[in-house]
Each structure stands twice: as structure tokens, then as C-alpha cells.
User: Fold these one by one.
Assistant:
Number 1:
Amino acid sequence: MIKVERPGSGDDTRSWGPPFLKDRDGNDTAEAAYYLGTNRNKRSVTCDIARPEGQALVRELATKCHVFVENFKVGDMARYGLDYASLRKVNPAIVYCSVTGFGQTGPYRERAGYDYAVQGMGGLMSITGERDDIGGGPQKVGVAVADLFTGMYSAVGILAALRHAERTGEGQHVDMALLDTRWRCWRTSAPTTS
């Protein structure tokens, strides 16, 4: 697995600590335990996709990859010639997964998506926290559940698309949205009223 990171600073989660990795003397390093845990066994490369050289590097990697996952706002990858339609020209069997807040189509497609916003919009915050009669109100849950469930459903969609590509040689575009995950997971767990 190859992770493409931003030149200079890398992935934002590299600094999401504490806790941080300790050096041999027991002192904190700059590497966050979260980043290391979620990126174990990945190889990293930095690449500026806004530059032609960076775009060429991504296209070269795509010729050798089975799966390509991106989480930019809708239209950003097309602007750089790195969208599904462009990459399938260099690798017809590629499985391309886009993870956004609200999907590739629909009225909110151009909005950025964040876990806590989706928890609020999807109604999960309305069933967490203190009771309303004692001054409570909506609260986000402690774990980024929309992010986690979207990742899980993305993996399932990618696996199904890979199976299809094995049989047919034809890749697919998997469109995953944080808000879609709300409807798949929370709807069945929300309390019902009579």
C-alpha cells in the first residue's frame, strides 16, 4: 500500500498526539501514535498533485495499482486529471474509491464533509449526551463514527469491485459519502416513537 502525502508536512494526522512515539531515551518524538497505528505497513511518498510532475507520478502509480482511494472534494481530482475517468484510461481494471462528505451527485456534493457535521445532520447527536429536560442538548459521540463506518463500507465496496475486476478486467468507481453511512448504520439504531 502506498500513501501519498503532502510535501513538507505530510499527513495531518502525523501530529495528532498525544500520545507520541517515544525515542530510545523515552522522550516524545514528532510521530503521533494515531498516525503510526492507522498507517502501519504503508509506504509513503510525497507528491504535489497541483504540479504536472506530481500528476504524472500519480498516473504512473495508477498503472501498477489495483485500488485508488481519494478523499478530496468533488471535482478536485478531475481538475488535475486524476479522476476515475482519467485513471481508467491508464488502467482499465482500477478500482477507484472516492470518499466525500455528501457523494458525487446531489445538492451538497460541493461541500466539505466532516464527521461531527454528519453526526449532527444525520441525527446521531440528538440521541447522545445529557437529557434535554436537564439542559442537555445534542453532543457528538467520542469516536469519529461517520469516518469509521464510511471506511468500513468503502472497504466492502472496494472488495466487491475488485472481485468484479478479477472476472471482467473492468474497474469501477466506488462513491462513498459520510452522510450515506448515517442512513446505513444509525437509522436502525435510533429509538423509535409510537
Number 2:
Amino acid sequence: MTTPPAKIILDCDPGHDDALAILLAAGSPAVELLAITTVGGNQTLEKVTLNARRVCTVAGIRGVPVAAGCAGPLARPLETAPEIHGETGLDGHDFPEPDVPLAGVHAVDLILEILGREPAGTVTLVPTGPLTNLAVALRKDPHTFRRAREIVWMGGALGLGNVTPAAEFNAYVDPEAARAVFASGVPLAMHGLHLTHQVRVTESVRRRLREMGTPVGRMAADLMAFYTERYRRRFEMGDPPLHDPCAVAFVIDRSIFRTQRMRVDVETRGEFTAGMTVCDVHGVTGRPANAEVAMEIDVVRFWDMMFLALAALPIQSS
């Protein structure tokens, strides 16, 4: 008996790694992509929403609504990441004008509409940016929000930061939202920096993307070349980690991950630790676990999954 594809809503802030998360979700037969929703994060809401439409246009992703959501965090000014993603949020590729329209509905309303429409426990929320949209949806209609099957988030970290010594970007941008979502009662899986730094965009990966010879392959290769150079400049890291697709990969095939259940709390007030995901690895607090934290990934199988998905996308004209 064939397992039906997992129904997901991808909530993102494209972003170079978000772009590849979109491609993985759209190209994998194990996923039914119900919607792409955007949130202010890597760049402003206007820019990341345009980027989602651009990626969908090049990849031939049609019939998937793209909806813009919250422009900034619940309680703080928005901080973006142009030092990594450039002024457009997706620098490095010459995109055509997008022909994928923007849905005429707010992302929060679209998330709730889909959760209310689909059978309870069948839709997985896959956020790869700040958790603002999800926190607002939870606040607006907690009953409908809790119909979600699971939340699979790329964010946080176990003892590692990339914006501050303590905080990962997505958690740092809106820690109040992250705290609310972790407390929502919906099962949550966290894919933090300690996990995503295992998946590197090596020279062989970049060459393999270029050798695909398709518009999608060229787009991905251009984006990863820019992303690599920015990571080298900012972090002195030769091969950058590919964060966001890890969350999508978890939905596709959990068997390539090793996870551990634990308590995760989000710091919102610390002078040096705002945005830190405090992971109780050894259960020292005695508080109940509220997250499944991904600890290890089979990198070879991840890249096999990614390239199969890229190859399955429609070949568009250049």
C-alpha cells in the first residue's frame, strides 16, 4: 500500500536556503505542497514574497498559493540578514519577472483556512523562518491551529548561535513568537544549527547543480555560489551549511535523522541570550519534553533526496 504524500504548508522567508527548501518540497513525490506563506526575516516581507514567486516561476511551481504574512516580529523591530542573502534577499541569479501571482489573502488567514478545511491531524506546518505567522495564527484561532499534525521548524540551536553567540537567526528575530509556538501543544520537531551544519554545500554539490543543465539547476547553482561567497566572507567558512531544506527532508523521510526528545525553552529577556533555545538534553530540570530535536542526519541520503526532487521539477524555458 502506497503511503499518501504528506500535506504541508511551507512558511518561509526566501532566502537562499529557503529557495532550495521550496524546490525540495515541490519536487518530492512524498510531499503535497498546499501553500507557501512568507514572513519578514532574511529580508523584508515585500522582498521575500517576491523571491518566493520568483523561485516558483523558474521551477514551474503552479497551483500552489503564495501568501504574504507578517512584516515583522510580535514585539521587536525586524532585523534582516543582507550580509548573507544580499539586498534582494536572493542575490546571485538573474531572475525573470515572476508570473506566479500573489494570493489575495493574508498568510495567517490562509494557514487557518487550510487547517480548518483539511481533516484534523493531516497538515504539517514547516516554518523555515521566524515563527511570527504561526504565533499570530495560534493567537487568532487556537482551536484551528491545534488541528495541525506537527510543526517542523528550522530554527534554534543546541549550544550554538549565528547572530549572537547564543542565538540562531530565526529564533533571535522573534523569540516571543518562538516561545508561544513551543508552548502551543502541537507536536514540534526542531532542526537547529547543530544539525544543519552537518549538511554542507561543497564544491562537488555546486558542480553537480551546474551540470544539471536546466533552468532550475542553473538557478540553484547561482544562488549557492553567492551564498558560499557570503558565508566565506562572514564566517570564514569554506562550504556553507544548507539549513532550511533539512526541515522539509524530515517530513519526507525521518529515517535519515536521529532525534532526541527534550525540553526546549526560548529565552526572551536575557542580556546576552535573547533568542537562545535552551535545550535540556539531560533532563536536569525535570520539566516535560516539548520537542523532538534532530541531532544527526545522513548527509549522503539527504543530497540524493535533494537532487531527485530537483530533477523531478518541470523544465521551464530559460
